[in-house]
């Protein structure tokens, strides 16, 4: 909740205390995920239509039909489309990470192992979003090592976050009769396993491409890379089951409170 001096003056106390923004969490979650999803699809499409040769080029100089994500977001105007989408979606992602931490603290008040895992989930979620920002705003064509380490932080923290989240929701499922919580856990588990399998496949095709320089292998790597990112987005989308009845509200504080 934020205090706004702009609403002071001619407005009465009723208007002043009225929420500035009121949005269902479902709309909030969908909008947050749609930003990077739309941005990535747009960048890949633009790269294929206008920068096909440059974006699909590799050092092996063999046939390749899809750009890697780094190549798709590294040129103009793709770079600016991606940076805009990720920049807009990053603040809500940080807020959701804190919301989950508060949710877990309420669920596991007297369970120390789960409380510790809740802290790990928070830190890994923050690291995941920070790694994504790093690889977004430092492209592979500008400073390759910084971009590479940002990508590594993103992937590693993403896997840790999904693993810890699945463990926490396994405990929640054990004591829950809520069908939405049951559905949320099952989809989280499926998406985590799928994401892990795609990460392993992407690593295999990347190493094979660099070792043997076979035609089309880098395309398979790029495809697996897309699936890693799409499944990551889908995993975060399960938040609309976890907070489906909640609302995101931005409002002025009561007149007698100052922050």
Automatic annotation (TrEMBL):
<feature type="transmembrane region" description="Helical">
    <location>
        <begin position="189"/>
        <end position="206"/>
    </location>
</feature>
<dbReference type="Pfam" id="PF10277">
    <property type="entry name" value="Frag1"/>
</dbReference>
<feature type="domain" description="CWH43-like N-terminal">
    <location>
        <begin position="25"/>
        <end position="245"/>
    </location>
</feature>
<comment type="function">
    <text>Involved in the fatty acid remodeling steps of GPI-anchor maturation where the unsaturated acyl chain at sn-2 of inositol phosphate is replaced by a saturated stearoyl chain. May catalyze the second step of the fatty acid remodeling, by reacylating a lyso-GPI intermediate at sn-2 of inositol phosphate by a saturated chain. The fatty acid remodeling steps is critical for the integration of GPI-APs into lipid rafts.</text>
</comment>
<keyword id="KW-0472">Membrane</keyword>
<feature type="transmembrane region" description="Helical">
    <location>
        <begin position="20"/>
        <end position="48"/>
    </location>
</feature>
<feature type="transmembrane region" description="Helical">
    <location>
        <begin position="115"/>
        <end position="137"/>
    </location>
</feature>
<feature type="transmembrane region" description="Helical">
    <location>
        <begin position="149"/>
        <end position="169"/>
    </location>
</feature>
<dbReference type="GO" id="GO:0006506">
    <property type="term" value="P:GPI anchor biosynthetic process"/>
</dbReference>
<keyword id="KW-1133">Transmembrane helix</keyword>
<protein>
    <recommendedName>
        <fullName>Acyltransferase PGAP2</fullName>
    </recommendedName>
</protein>
<comment type="similarity">
    <text>Belongs to the PGAP2 family.</text>
</comment>
<dbReference type="GO" id="GO:0000139">
    <property type="term" value="C:Golgi membrane"/>
</dbReference>
<keyword id="KW-0812">Transmembrane</keyword>
<feature type="transmembrane region" description="Helical">
    <location>
        <begin position="218"/>
        <end position="235"/>
    </location>
</feature>
<dbReference type="InterPro" id="IPR039545">
    <property type="entry name" value="PGAP2"/>
</dbReference>
<dbReference type="GO" id="GO:0005789">
    <property type="term" value="C:endoplasmic reticulum membrane"/>
</dbReference>
<keyword id="KW-0337">GPI-anchor biosynthesis</keyword>
<dbReference type="InterPro" id="IPR019402">
    <property type="entry name" value="CWH43_N"/>
</dbReference>
<keyword id="KW-0333">Golgi apparatus</keyword>
């Amino acid at each position: 909740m934020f205090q706004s001096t702009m609403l002071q003056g001619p407005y009465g106390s009723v208007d002043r205390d009225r929420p500035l923004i009121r949005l269902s969490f479902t709309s909030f979650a969908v909008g947050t995920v749609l930003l990077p999803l739309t941005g990535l699809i747009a960048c890949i499409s633009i790269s294929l239509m206008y920068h096909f040769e440059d974006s699909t080029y590799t050092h092996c100089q063999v046939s390749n039909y899809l750009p890697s994500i780094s190549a798709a977001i590294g040129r103009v105007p793709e770079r600016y489309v991606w940076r805009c989408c990720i920049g807009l979606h990053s603040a809500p992602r940080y807020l959701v990470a804190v919301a989950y931490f508060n949710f877990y603290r309420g669920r596991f008040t007297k369970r120390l192992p789960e409380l510790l895992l809740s802290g790990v989930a928070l830190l890994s979620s923050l690291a995941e979003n920070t790694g994504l920002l790093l690889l977004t705003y430092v492209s592979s064509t500008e400073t390759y090592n910084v971009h590479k380490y940002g990508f590594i932080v993103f992937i590693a923290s993403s896997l840790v976050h999904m693993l810890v989240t699945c463990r926490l929701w396994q405990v929640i499922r054990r004591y829950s009769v809520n069908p939405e919580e049951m559905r949320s856990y099952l989809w989280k588990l499926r998406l985590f396993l799928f994401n892990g399998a795609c990460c392993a496949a992407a690593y295999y095709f990347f190493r094979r491409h660099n070792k043997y320089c076979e035609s089309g292998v880098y395309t398979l790597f790029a495809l697996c890379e897309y699936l890693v990112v799409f499944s990551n987005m889908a995993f975060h989308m399960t938040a609309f089951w976890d907070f489906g009845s909640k609302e995101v509200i931005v409002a002025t504080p009561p007149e007698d409170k100052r922050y």
